């Protein structure tokens, strides 16, 4: 069975005080929730990772980063390495988010390198993929997402892929309030699982978590999470509201 995961992607939001208040409120609401083979992750801005991972020490919540460098170390001013993230308590890192592909021109190769660096540092990876509206309207979304998977995952070993989860995030659904329907999500998740089966075998395909991301909220979470190949969610905007995010997690549990 794939692990059930709900991950918050705070993006570049919240000052330190607001971040503390939010995480305290969410974890307080969820403190009595029992979790079985499931995980709740907060992907927070780099500068809060050390403090918040200490805050969550000995809890059932994990801290993640939203990006890491494709390089191991060296003269890359302003960059943050995967090893640095691990050394301050991050357990997860999001790689290949559509905002990074679009605004920072991340290529399949760069994303593949980032995944390697992250796994070498002992981090688990949330690898994002998903098509734009233009691609979907041309009915090319299946080939497009397959290319993203092939472009960044094809060199991974079966052992490595055990530490990676995939987030299918159609770009037209991110931050737009327009989520994919359960059928649209299920179709793509099933295809991603078929890709994993062809590439890494049935056991890996059956055990890899595939998350849906794109305007998930407390109202639509139930129908999306009920899809057989949806193993959880990557939640942006709604993760900034304590009660709403907690509701999404509870829906899943
Ligand atoms: C995201 O950015 O990963 C995301 C899913 O955002 P939102 O939930 O706001 O659409």
What's a concise summary of this model?
By secondary structure, the protein is α/β, with parallel strands linked by helices. Helices cover 43% and strands 16% of the residues.
Estimated share of beta-strand residues: 15-25%
What is the CA-atom radius of gyration, in angstroms? 17 Å
Shape: globular
Could you give a short account of the major beta sheet?
8 strands, parallel, barrel
Helix count equals 12
Number-wise, the strands total 8
Task: Give me the CATH architecture, please.
Answer: Alpha-Beta Barrel
CATH H-level superfamily: Aldolase class I
Strand arrangement within the widest β-sheet reads: 1-2-3-4-5-6-7-8
Distance between the termini: 15 Å
Topology pattern, helix = H, strand = E = EHEHEHEHHEHHHEHHEHEH
Helix proportion: 40-55%
The residue ranges in which pLDDT falls below 50 over 5 or more consecutive positions are none
Distinct small-molecule ligands in the complex: phosphoenolpyruvate
Structural class: alpha/beta
């Amino acid at each position: 069975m794939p692990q059930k995961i709900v991950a918050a992607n705070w993006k570049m939001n919240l000052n330190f005080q607001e971040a503390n208040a939010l995480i305290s409120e969410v974890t307080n609401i969820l403190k009595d929730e029992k979790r079985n083979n499931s995980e709740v992750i907060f992907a927070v801005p780099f500068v809060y990772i050390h403090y918040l991972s200490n805050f969550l020490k000995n809890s059932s919540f994990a801290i993640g980063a939203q990006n890491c460098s494709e390089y191991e170390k060296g003269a890359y001013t302003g960059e943050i390495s995967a090893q640095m993230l691990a050394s301050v308590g991050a357990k997860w890192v999001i790689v290949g988010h559509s905002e990074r592909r679009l605004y920072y021109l991340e290529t399949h190769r760069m994303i593949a390198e980032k995944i390697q660096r992250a796994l070498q540092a002992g981090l688990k990876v949330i690898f994002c993929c998903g098509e734009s509206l233009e691609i979907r309207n041309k009915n090319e979304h299946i080939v497009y997402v397959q290319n993203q998977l092939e472009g960044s995952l094809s060199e991974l070993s079966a052992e490595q892929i055990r530490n990676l989860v995939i987030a299918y995030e159609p770009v037209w659904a991110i931050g737009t309030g327009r989520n994919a329907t359960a059928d649209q999500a299920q179709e793509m998740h099933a295809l991603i699982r078929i890709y994993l089966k062809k590439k890494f075998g049935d056991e890996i395909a059956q055990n890899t978590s595939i998350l849906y991301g794109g305007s998930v909220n407390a109202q639509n979470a139930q129908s999306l999470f009920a899809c057989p190949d949806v193993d959880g969610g990557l939640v942006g905007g709604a993760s900034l509201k304590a009660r709403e995010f907690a509701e999404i997690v509870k829906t899943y549990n």
